[in-house]
Design goal:
Helices cover 22% and strands 30% of the residues. By secondary structure, the chain is α/β, with parallel strands linked by helices. The strands form two sheets. Strands 1, 2, 6, 7, 8, 9, 10 and 11 form an eight-stranded mixed β-sheet that branches. It has a three-stranded mixed β-sheet with strand order 4-3-5, with no helix packed on it. Helix 2 crosses helix 3. It starts with a strand and ends in a 12-residue tail after the last helix.
């Protein structure tokens, strides 16, 4: 059984982190169910274990939180659906790379509910959208923007942190960092892509596709490439 929590308003980051750590410990001890927590944060930046200080372009713009999740700098804020995943990876194959690929596949399946094709790219964690409406990248290749970021941490084979999908955030807030250390691609959102969807619509899509991807017997099946 997986408990789904949905929080209205903006959730303080330190409170969310404390809840995740406590819940992950309880799951590992067999004292609590797995949990997916859907929420929004006030504007802030987080630094993962691979973050480089030079990628924090505007350190005074928003609060910056050092975390021990994987990845580099990312932004959270209003209009972005954060999904914290407290799941027993030990029961899901004990393969961290497969687990991350399944999270990417889950996001891609949820985006597909809106007729949107998400992509994964080697060496670039997260979900990407091709932009044929934009000039090709220098050196060739179609322009792509990131629509969802993923960064997790494991403790006793239970995950926490998770993923974020840009629904309708202020995209200028990403200017204060180099998102995930990548400079040659941009950031987009569902509304920026012309999809008039709400946070509630995204929540429905995430719940509808979760079992399809995250509870299938053969974990780490090759996710869709688009």
């Amino acid at each position: 059984m997986v408990e789904w929590k949905i929080s209205d308003g903006l959730t303080d980051y330190t409170e969310a982190l404390a809840f995740m750590e406590t819940r992950a410990a309880a799951i590992a001890a067999g004292e609590a169910e797995e949990c997916i927590w859907l929420l929004e944060h006030p504007p802030l930046y987080t630094a993962g274990t691979s973050a480089r200080r030079e990628d924090l372009r505007d350190p005074d713009r928003f609060p910056v939180f050092e975390t021990r999740r994987g990845g580099q700098y990312t932004y959270h804020g209003p209009g972005q659906r954060v999904a914290y995943v407290m799941l027993d990876v030990g029961r899901r194959g004990r393969d961290v790379r497969c687990f991350v690929r399944d999270l990417e596949g889950w996001v891609i399946a949820a985006l597909g509910e809106f007729g949107l094709t998400g992509h994964i790219r080697p060496g670039r964690v997260g979900v990407w959208i091709e932009r044929p409406d934009r000039p090709f990248r220098p050196g060739g290749g179609m322009a792509e923007d990131k629509v969802a970021a993923i960064g997790i941490r494991l403790r006793r084979w239970v995950s926490f942190h998770g993923l974020s999908i840009n629904v309708e955030p202020d995209l200028s807030h990403f200017d204060g960092i180099v998102p995930c250390g990548i400079t040659e691609h941009g950031v987009t959102s569902l509304v920026d892509l012309g999809l008039p969807v709400t946070m509630a619509d995204v929540d429905v899509a995430l719940r509808r596709t979760f079992d399809e991807v995250m509870t299938r017997p053969a974990a780490c099946a090759t996710p869709p490439q688009g």
